[in-house]
Structures
1.
Amino acid sequence: MSQSIKRAFLDTQDGQILYRIGGEGEAILLLHMTPRSSDEFKELMPNLAATNLVIAMDLMGLGDSDKPPRVYSVADYAKNAIALLDELGIKKVSIFGSVTGGYIAGEVAAAYPERVEKLILCNVVGFDAEEQDKILQLYSQGYKVQEDGSHLMGRWLSRVNYVGTGELNHRCVLDELKSFGSTIYPGVAVANYCLSAPERFRLINCPTLIMSGDKALEALEKAGLAKAENQSWLKEVISHSQSVELEGGNLWMVNQMPTEILKLVVDFLQN
């Protein structure tokens, strides 16, 4: 039975962070991809809240959280996650991180091992130095408003082949529009972090599930932002991890395949 999800704000010295919360029991924190928001977990949260206390936060610079006062690092985003857990009185949590959120989740597990029960890394794509430069340039520039409004159709068409033309694409565009006109801070943070991630992730010692979609690379490969040859790193550096690949899953599979993902998450948390 699904549970209601409420929204609230956490006040920090760098600004306000929106978070969603619902359910009760063992806590799980959900961290979203770029340039989305905690809306990425709209389908998952009410059903996961039937068995767990579920929290999802908008990363600073995206969604309804404030933009950070400086270029943030992945370590800064990890500190934000810990600050939210402290505010809620949660001493230990499992974390589900999607793409960008997966890098942050991994850093939380590496830097604060005493705070992390279990870790789920979803579509955490690996990058090389060439791709790092492209991502850094893309997200440092951010999205620009065009006087004729052509940016609206541009963003609408950017993922039509992967999510279609319906409600999900509309939600993705709304999230993107909130980041227009500024640096896309979480993307820059991951670009600055991704080459050092293997070293950091070797410190992860909690039970870890690596979840990926068999079509997750398609959009990034088409844009020249990722290569298949760079995708074995997670299993190599977290040697104790389990892994599962979802047939037909892409970067937006948390929205598109919530029933399948819910089962995998609940089974992993309970076993």
2.
Amino acid sequence: MLRLIGRLVRERTEAQWRVVDALRAKNERDPGRHGLQKQVARELGISDQSVSRAILRSGWQEEWAARPAAEMLLATAHGLIRDTVGPDASNRGER
């Protein structure tokens, strides 16, 4: 799961990063708002279609769909490690 997310992120072009970063910033300020892609297109001086293509090719939607699964797997692994090592291991410097 982490390799999938890593590959999507690693293979983005500079242009795709500009679109993804702009969308992410707008979405954080106003989550769920419609028309964000059009706003990003205007701000970046590119067409709506260019924004749509950048989102599609960057794997942004797939990345965000995979993040909850990755978080769950990491939390499960952390819990298994913590239970195996014991709750006091971090206080004793054991890992």
3.
Amino acid sequence: MSLGIREAAAELLSATEARAPLTDSWPELDVATAYAIQDEALRLRRERGETLVGVKLGLTSRAKQQRMGINEPLLGWLTDTMVLPAGQPVPRLIHPRAEPELVFVLDRRLAGPGVTAATALAAVSHVYGGIEIIDSRYTDYRFTLPDVVADNGSSASFSLGPVGLPPSSMDLSLEAALLEVDGQIVDTATGAAVQGHPAEALALAANALGARGLALEPGWLVLTGGLTDAVDLRPGSRVAAHFSHLGSVTLAG
């Protein structure tokens, strides 16, 4: 028997072990209902004292879409408890993975529909390099699009790098990231991996929220999606992302 929206949200939010995807027992689950589950989980987070600080995009790069077998991006919510300060150990998770991202900070409201990449970029005060830690609640990261939307885009935590620059000071499509695991470079990408330009991902977020009667708000962070495929963050391992102009971020498993 399938769960209801409230039950599914509570169960995913409290999961400490991997479980079967919702669609195994709820095959008719659609994306709209999955976002309702995601929104209910946010309500529960805020009820327990968390503060909404922005949104994350997922599956914005072809590398991630191909790995997960899903061909469209998705959105998830970010709260203050997901922020991982520099130097802090990664908390205990189910099966964490790390990926480098470009992160925008908004200085004004951005509301769809009709937001273009240029309009979106004009609303950004600073861009940072970062690492997102994802952690699917589903066994072996096996899910459909509604499953991962309901799971808030496999959200866990994220860490920002030390350098924040105005987006006008660099070509974000050419901003490079090197992904290092235990001293070895394992992957590279540029900002063009994210929808051709990370501002396109930002516009996508504004327009997708606009379709739901919502908007990106001033001061919010927007994680634009993994530039490369994600790598496992195992106990004792070290993952670092090195950016051309935005410094480096290092996390220890």
4.
Amino acid sequence: MNDPYPFGSAYSGESDYCESTKSAPEILDAQTKQLAAMAYGEASPKNNSDEMMALASVLVRQRDARGYSDIQTFAKKERTFSYVVSDGNVRYRTMMRASDEDIARNAGMQAAVAAARNALNYGPDKSNGAYFWDGADIKSNYANHAKVKRGVRFTDLSHNIYGIKESIKLVIQYQYTKKKNKKTGDVVVEQKEIARYDHLYESTAGVGGTIFWKFGQDYMNATHAKPYK
């Protein structure tokens, strides 16, 4: 497969683009730029190529799972999934407003473009099948974090890049059956456990400044939830 990071360093700074060459920068199509800007905005300031690659793959997976044919419609209709589209995120806004020349000069944005192209072509998935992610706020807002309140588990210690504690929220589902004693007429309610789970989210990767998640299988089996929401 072609090198998914053709623009060199994963970190911010100048790319190999040079004014003196007077070569025209590559023109980005709208879908690639939209996805690249979302991955760039969601990523940590480290401009880690693998992190942006993973984020882009999750965004495409969510787009497909929710039935959208393009990233622009997904971004417009699902604003609560990737908040950078509507919350004034500086990195997202900067890349969306950047010209092709500006993007060609910025190694971090170029890495985001490479990540978007990889995801749109269903290339290597650095998130390992994730549908969700979290950044540093899962540590800074641990006590009130929505995922923490619903239960998180790390499938590999290397995923726990912020050194947070796992959270266990045991849920047991029962089936209740009424049975009538034919002799006495008394009705007895029998209780039978049919499923249990103690977390919703399982880690799939920890890359750059992002932890990636998917729903745990016990939760999926118990609730028949859709994997993407």
